[in-house]
Amino acid sequence: MGHAYTPGLRVTERTVLHKVRRLPIPGKVHVQPGDIVTAAQVVASTELPGSVTTLNVAREMNCQPDEVPGLMTKAEGDRVTAGEVLAESKALWGLFHSFVRSPLSGTIESISEVTGQVLLRGEPTPVNLEAFVDGRVIEIRGQETVVIACSCAYLQGIFGLGGEAYGPVRVLCSSPEAALAAEMLDESCAGQVVVGGAYADIGALRRAIEVKAAAVVVGGLSDSAVDELLGYHLGVAVTGHEALGTTLIMTEGFGRIPMAERSYRLLAAHEGQQASVSGATQIRAGVIRPEIVISRPPTELEDTAVEAAKEGMLELGCPIRLIREPYFGLLGEVVALPEEPQPIETEALVRVLVAKLADGREVTVPRANVELIEQ
Amino acid sequence: MDPKDAQIILATDCGSTTTKAILIERRGDGYRLVCRGEAPTTVEAPFEDVTIGVLNAVAEVEELSGRKLVADGSIIRPARGDVGTDLYLSTSSAGGGLQIMVVGLVRRMTAESAERAALGAGAIVMDTLALDDGRRPHERIERLRQLRPDMVLISGGVDGGERRRVVEMAELVAAANPEARLGAKYQLPAIYAGNVDNREAIRETLGSATALSIVDNLRPAPERENLGPTRSEIQELFLHHVMAQAPGYSKLVPWTDADIMPTPAAVGNIIQTIAAAESLNVVGVDIGGATTDVFSVFDGQFNRTVSANLGMSYSISNVFAETGLDNLQRWLADPVDAEEFSQSVRNKMIRPTTIPQRLLGLKMEQAVAREALRLAFEQHKLLATGLKGVQKHRDIADAFSQEVTGETLIDMMSLDLLVGSGGVLSHTPRRAQAALMLIDAFLPEGVTRLAVDSIFMMPQLGVLAQVHPEAAREVFQRDCLIPLGVCVAPRGADREGAPCVRVTVEGAGQTQSAEVRCGEMKVLPLVTGTEGTLVVEPARGFDVGQGRGRSLTTTVLGGVLGVVVDARGRPLQWAKTPEARREQVKRWAEALDAYPS
Question: Class of A158-289 per CATH?
Fold first, then answer.
């Protein structure tokens, strides 16, 4: 036995997920433990404070900063509307007035007699937090966090773009090796989670966005297509906020790589069912991978055991995915786990395993270069 | 116990992903490393207690050393026979390290001084706001709100100078009301280190919105920096505010015999200790997965920079974007398809723990490392400068051309020691690869010692140097550094094949000598542990520190490679065509026997 250095991506037909939903700042939680919720239901909400604008009243009024408080017609904390007079001065026995008007609607945050600045805070932005999955509320933490238990089929991708989306699963490729082409996508894909096979080129991705697909799930993507779509070079893998209109999830890696058979079969088995997807990826301490959740009715919660987070252990017979050249993207199973470190082509002395590939070849690879396919 | 009397020392470094423990013992010949253990860091869910990772790493040390170190979930102190340790020390960069937002007045003056203070204290500077940063006030407020730093450092105005604008910047901080990163339930620490005349106004502006502390002005006069008080306060706040919020640290703090230091501050500490003890000019680099830290001490002046998005895994794709394909491909002797290169870089980014299996894959990663190191060093040179904004009066000959100062302090000709650490440098299959990467990226001039950190224990030795510098120095030199040898690189350039330098090394009972021509590299072996006399005779037009064409005789220490003569020119002279460049790279690697044929 030995550790897998890269934790496997989860692909499971039935599990109970404890989904933690959290507001960016404390607000109001609208549900209680025991409540049954649906994916699009708002479970908590808050208001993000409006953005702050500075207004240099001393300069506008041509006066000293310490004269500003005396010229203000509004006090700190007062509400103002756009165009309303904030400060006023009279000169020459009241014959000439000068004014400063508010550039926005909001509240007066502060008036400074040191700098002569007035800070205005705009209207707050409401934030509504949805449940994301169908399930039952099992815990409320403070005024910001809701934990939902969800019985589901669950699949993690390796990398994604775009935020949360919902839609029925629609499989467009006839096999995990087939590529998703632009002509396969039409208006009927609007709002759907479209499943391709090995690859989607830039044309197919653009078409998916054009027809307003909720999400595209494929084995691999070309890195140049990703950059072209984003309009910039993606330097660090922290994603989820891209406003593409369609969420993208790849399950294997960059390049033309067939989707793992097991992932493809799982998605195909749930064709037509509602899925919740998220492209958010973070590859640092506290890894976040993109995910596809196909919720089951909350009544099934009692029948499904909660899966504890497992530490990946390599054992003989384990199905694995090879995740580095020269075997990148191939699947196999472990047939030997030599204890002693062995030299590889680079001359590095590393712990290795022997894998039997799907085509019958036996290859030796560093243990760091495999990923468990979790059962 | 007086730390100087310690026989057994245990030290840990709690990194973002791994907690590393080392055990040091005093033997007849001084302090030596006994062994090292490591375990995953446990700051994040589901564990959320850093001490679990610490105890796991220490358990590995127990297993390897046979010394019992833990009882009842705590570290046994002091040492008795085969049980316990006399000293326990720790550093931490878990949870992303110490993240600071810097606010100053002028980007290249007070704001830059504040940045230097924060970096020197071991922080990551998330962003620097200044009056001349090109942003509008609401954009600065938005930035403060978005970033959620661990603390804010505000500087601005020399003593007796500008007042109003400094308060204006403080008002922005108050308006943003930024939340601290590690929990909304405590006030964000803020340090004011600006114009002393403004302290009252700053207290009024920020006193209720932040946990404010006020220290001496870090730039009291245009021509003077005073970074010490700010650095001390940052480390104090790190320990008592930031770390106090991190999971498990309230347990860890009472275990330690000295304050827990931010990891980079500890690395800076050991580099300064070595530089001071041997009167050396030193450059150290730590290339990680996400960031690259560069440390330098020149003429006693310490500087540190962090290149936040230059690294070998999480940020590898960013290195690719910043330097471009051409700069990467020039380091490869084999042509590589552009799409293949960029795809493999992206796949490393999303699966950061994988290692190259093919030789070409290794060479591609080392090409990226050269560029990450080069770019990080370029950034370091820009910040490691004399004070800017000071007008220097010159002599009568150029009385009309007053020059704004701020030249870089980095002088490659006077550099004595270049130390590399981080997986890509410390774990090369052949040490010659590390030497070549360091030389290519930093382009040392004259005679420079090269070394790599064997197992990255500089953080632990840095925190030890606080309480027992001698012990730290002994272990650093004997067990931490792997001497690669010395690089001899004449400054200057000529056509390929022209005479460049003659080098003679006398040591270990033999004399070796070589004529090296422009464009060539050559190695004269001098094994680790031996001392040799090096005579360098540069051709006309080339300088090794004594002036053009003048010889240099010096004593050098051996290393894994020995004396590496680099006659490729400074600046490095590249061939004009890609084919010829590939041929050059092949020859250089062969000269150092860097790769299997």
Answer: alpha beta
Query: What six digits make up the tokens of B322?
Result: 């910043």
Is residue B286 within 8 Å of B269, Cβ to Cβ? no
Return the DSSP state at B86: S
* Cα separation, B55 vs B49, whole angstroms: 11
Select from A324, A367, A371 the residue whose CB has the most chain B CBs within 10 Å, as the one to mutate to test that interface.
A324
Query: How many C-beta atoms lie closer than 10 Å to residue B412's C-beta?
Result: 19
SS3 B273: helix
Give pLDDT tens digits for A191-223. 999 999 999 999 999 999 999 999 999 999 998
CA-wise closest residue to B219 among B305, B98, B127, B115: B115
Task: Give the integer Cα–Cα distance in Å for B342 and A317.
Answer: 34
Average pLDDT, chain A: 88
> What are the chain A neighbours of B45 within 8 Å (beta carbons)?
286
Residue pLDDT, tens place only, A241-279: 899 999 999 999 999 889 988 899 999 999 999 999 999
CB contacts < 8 A (A, B): 158
Question: Which tens digit of pLDDT belongs to each residue from A149-189?
Answer: 999 999 999 999 999 999 999 999 999 999 999 999 999 99
Looking at 1.10.238.10, 2.40.50.100, 2.40.30.30, 3.10.129.10, the CATH number of the domain A52-122 comes to 2.40.50.100
Residues B88 and B259 sit within 8 Å (Cβ to Cβ): no
B361/A54 CB distance under 8 A: no
Average pLDDT, chain B: 89
**Cβ pair A25:B201 closer than 8 A:** no
Phi–psi pair at A67, nearest 5 degrees:
-85, -15
Asked whether the beta carbons of B394 and B365 are under 8 A apart, the reply is no
What number is the ipTM of this complex? 0.85
What is the rounded average pLDDT of the residues A102-129?
Answer: 87
Phi, psi of B596 (to 5 degrees): -65, 145
Taking a C-beta distance cutoff of 8 angstroms, is the pair B375, B287 a contact?
no
- DSSP category for residue B453: E
**B304-360 pLDDT, tens digit each:** 888 877 889 888 999 999 999 999 999 999 999 998 899 999 999 988 888 999 999
- CA B24 vs CA B64, B182, B470, B475: distances in Å: 13, 33, 13, 8
Residue A322 vs residues A8, A368, B113: alpha-carbon distances, Å: 11, 10, 49
A292 neighbors A193 (Cβ within 8 angstroms):
yes
Q: Which CATH class is domain A313-372?
A: mainly beta
Domains along the sequence of chain B with CATH: 3-94 (3.30.420.40), 97-245 (3.40.50.360), 284-387+408-591 (no CATH)
Chain B partners of A53 at a C-beta cutoff of 8 Å? Answer: 137-138
Name the residue ranges covered by the structural domains of chain A: 52-122, 158-289, 313-372
Report the percentage of chain B scoring pLDDT > 70.
95
Note whether B359 contacts A345, CB cutoff 8 Å: yes
Average pLDDT over residues A301-317: 65
Helix locations, B292-353, DSSP H? 316-323, 325-329, 338-350
Residues of B in contact with A234 (CB under 8 A): 317, 346
pLDDT value of residue A164: 95
Which residue of B41, B46, B142 is in closest CB contact with A51? B142
Which of A236, A323, A345 lies closest to B351 in CB terms? A323
Q: At B46, is the pLDDT very low, low, confident or very high (cuts 50, 70, 90)? A: low
Q: How far is B169 from chain A (nearest CA, A)?
A: 10
Chain B residues in contact with A52 (beta carbon < 8 A): 137-138, 141, 172, 175-176
pLDDT value at residue B369: 98
Is the CB of B357 less than 8 angstroms away from the CB of A222?
A: no
